[in-house]
Amino acid sequence: MTIASTTQQICFAVLSVTLVLGALGVVLLPNIVYSAFLLGGVFMSVAGLYLLLNASFVAAAQVLIYVGAVNVLILFAIMLVNKKETLAEIPGLALRRVLSGAVCIGLFLLLLRVAITTPWALPGPLPVGEEATARIGEHLFSDYLLPFELASVLLLMAMIGAIVLARRDVFNSDVITGEPADQGLIEKARTPLLLEKTR
């Protein structure tokens, strides 16, 4: 066992533990802001795993797209819509937790069975090398052009939805329900500071 393989195994173990703990924190923490930050850590851990697989382009795309765009979009949506509301008690919460836990355990066992029983081809295909970026670009703008464009439209719709939800307080009544809107967040009209000093 060489130093390089030992270092690779240590990095893989650290990234795996970070990824699993971060994913559990995203799901289990009650504070949604902390969950969003932990989601960024999960994305960074996945990018580190891509680097261990010599997929540097995919790792860079993971950081740029998921950490730099998707996670930032989620944080903006949380900050725009995060209002203090009294949460009503959810009926049948214990049953829902049991059912969702059973579904998660079932999916985990299914993935574990696939990982164990699949005859993986080792050591795998030969690396493409410097042509990897060109090939990814060809597939991205030919075979996967429609999903690529749909993902961009979906992100745009999410941002517009967050802005619409955040600006509901500006109107006197809610656009959807017609009820009077809470005007507490609207800034009251006031004289500019420079004019106050001259008087």
Describe the structure in your own words.
The protein is 68% helix and 0% strand. It is mainly α and 199 residues long. The protein folds into two domains: 1-82, Four Helix Bundle (Hemerythrin (Met), subunit A) (Up-down Bundle), CATH 1.20.120.1200; 130-192, no CATH class. Helix 1 (3-28) packs antiparallel against helix 2, helix 2 (32-52) runs antiparallel to helix 3 (56-81) and helix 3 (56-81) runs parallel beside helix 6 (145-166). The model has no long low-confidence stretch (mean pLDDT 79).
Give short descriptive properties of this protein:
mainly alpha, 199 residues, single chain, 68% helix
CATH superfamily of the largest domain: NADH-ubiquinone/plastoquinone oxidoreductase chain 6, subunit NuoJ
> In total, how many domains does the architecture comprise?
2
Count of DSSP-assigned helices: 7
Q: What is the N-to-C order of secondary-structure elements (H for helix, E for strand)?
A: HHHHHHH
Distance between the termini: 81 Å
The amount of beta strand, in percent, is: under 5%
* Overall 3D form: globular
DSSP strand count: 0
The description of the largest β-sheet is: none
CATH class of the largest domain: Mainly Alpha
Helix and strand content put the structural class at mainly alpha
What is the fold named in CATH at topology level of the largest domain? Four Helix Bundle (Hemerythrin (Met), subunit A)
Whole-number radius of gyration? 24 Å
Q: What's the mean pLDDT score?
A: 79
Q: Which residue ranges are poorly predicted, with pLDDT under 50 across at least 5 consecutive positions?
A: none
Helix content, binned percent? 55-70%
Tell me what the CATH architecture of the largest domain is. Answer: Up-down Bundle
